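It is worth pausing here to work through a concrete case rather than discussing structure prediction in the abstract. The textbook approach is simple: state the sequence, then state the predicted structure, then interpret. We follow exactly that order.
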Amino acid sequence: MLYSYNWLKEYVHDLPSPGDLSELLTMSGCEVDSVTDLSAGIKGVVTAVVEGIEPHPNADKLKLCRVRAGKNVYSIICGAANMKEGDGVALALDGAVLPGGVKIKRVKIRGVQSEGMMCSEAELGLKDSSEGILILPGHTPTGRDILKVLGLDDYIIEVSVTPNRGDVLSIRGLAREIAAVTGKKFTDKKIKVKEKGPETRSIVQVSVKPHSGCERYAARVIEGVKVGESPDFIKRRLEALGMRPVNNVVDVTNYVLIETGQPLHAFDLDRVSGRSITVRGANSGETIETIDNKVRKLGEHMVVIADGAGPVALGGVMGGKSSEVTGETANILLESACFEPAPIRRASRELAISTDSSYRFERGTDIENVTGALDMAAALISEVAAGVVARGAIDIYPKKQKTRKIKFSLERAEAVLGLPLKKGEVRGIFKRLGIMAEDAGRELECTPPSFRHDIKEEADLVEEVARISGYGNVPIVLPVSEIRGGGLPPSAALKRRIREALRADGFLEVMNYSFVSYSTFSLSGGADPGVRLLNPLSEDQSFMRDSLVPSLLDNLKYNIDMKNGDARIFEVAPVFLPGEKLPVEKWKTSGLIYGKRWRESWNFPSEDVDFYDIKGVVEKMLGCLGLNADFSALLPDGEHKNLFHPGKSSAIKVNAQVLGVTGEAHPDLIDRLGLKRPAYLFELDLDAMAGAGMAEKKFTPLPRYPASERDIAFILDSAITYGEIIKAVEKIDTKLVEKVDLFDVYYGRGVPEGKRSLAIRIRYRSAEKTLIQEDVEKIHSTVASELASRFGAEIRGIEGAPK
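Step two, the predicted structure:
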């Protein structure tokens, strides 16, 4: 929008220079695009009056004029025909400069001296063309600088107004903003309307229908107007700000629009049917011919100003042709209203009309400014069009605007801005912005002015404090930026580590459907009906599997049928168990090995895989996850009893928590699938693994001191497991036991029935010194005593030598 610097000074008298003002406005959020000096290129042109006109002695088309400027009279030769004695003119004397760099000098024209030039509007840069010289009003003083007389000693400031700041779309609005930013005093104008004649309500009737989209409607009547050309000061200001003058009545409405931001419209009252106005929604199929001579079809959501015959204006957008003010108009109905933004915006888009009025109504106008702008326009029309203003104004304001109260916390504002704030300073800022602020304990209770529709919450108040304090005062704090490698959620990381460990051990991953047939589902042998689909794609996919093992056995059977007799496969996938309302999803990993331990070769024996192969796979995988597992000889529970061999399977435990089962497939499954040799399986619960406390691998330096190994052979009950023996040795209160290995098991002659002979080798090492024989023998004897006392072991022999 364009603003006049001189016009702004009528509200804020002590303005900064145009350049400084532009900087201040831009830094406060109202970006200034350009500043244009209207006086640029004009120098030395003054006002004058023509005192005499004579024919040029040597040229028929030229005239010799006596022109007085102040006390001096000058001889000017001119070819224009539109002047007469007594006319005021713009006189460029010797040394004057006109736009385009034209310099005026004394010259002889056809032998007669001319001391200057009388200028046209085109020569002064006011218009593109003109038919004669510029004629000034007869009362214009002479000898004055033409720039001041024509209002050309001004600057036009172009501002990019953001859509939320409809309050600055006027001279008064921007002046308020300037006063707030600069701390200067804002002085509003006092309007006094001289009212005469009958009451307005006796002349015209106005009504506003509910839900019409009009929040307030005010009107005045001005009788006996003389429509004509506007005074120069109105025309000049309108032209400078990009508006074309029409007539004194229409020009006043535009003038007040620019000054106050309140759109107005003038109707020819004598052309309003029944002298009755109704503000309502448009009827379906209704039309109106607008002042641009176009007939427009209206929608029911549009607002119309109607008389007894139909619409006379499209509310908030454009007036109608039928009630347009013309040169014959004598009586005026002057309208000022506040419309809801949404209907105006929609109508403007649908009808492809964008006017100065709709532009402001779409962004929201000040409902409390409706009557003030109306009074200003009525007073001005009375002055420039000789009209008589009827007594009183019609003001229909159904729902008084509610005040918005917003809590403002200095602590929260300081945290957002990083600025120390004092309550007094903040209240001063709010006062400059027209925001009422009252103490409410440790907070302020703020009431925004009616023209600030954009202030709706505390964050908006914080922004206002930052704007007026100066964005440059907000401390610059660089955000903390960390470069981190991409990470996975713990569950996804666990699945990835399992897959990597098993692939590294020579396994291939398979991916099966979670839907299985009843025959596959029944391989687990569970009595529970499981999770059955209500609408399966086929009978082969009618159940949700509750274990991954049956699917792996199906994969094995298919590979055997395809003449692939060896398999090392695994799967990581969810299983589904019955729940109270919905199935319960649990993630598991299962693996299967079958066939030969090694590929057939001349240098490897042809051996079948056994329990210890699958046990070693599980140990290695869990070791990669930082878990040290125990293998219990207990029989599998009900969940696995039909899948694993009851005598050749083991529960997998970590810290007494069962993670899963490993072992040989149940003989019934082997027979049912027609397999020629046993298959070995494991199945682990991922949730149990995640909760087992996986440890990260840590670097351990190579030992600095040598180790010593000792062997112990002993006889004990067959029911005692090797794992129990290992734990007993490792729990002996010493840091010297590094490793315990079983290297011999013997049943037979010399060993009583129900017992067995075991031989273990123990490695001893100290991290602080080289162990001597006495140190090793002492701890070795302690180990032998612990085995004898705890398990009733009969020590057969103790051997060893330093390494």
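Step three, interpretation. The chain has a mean pLDDT of 90. The two ends are 96 Å apart (CA to CA).
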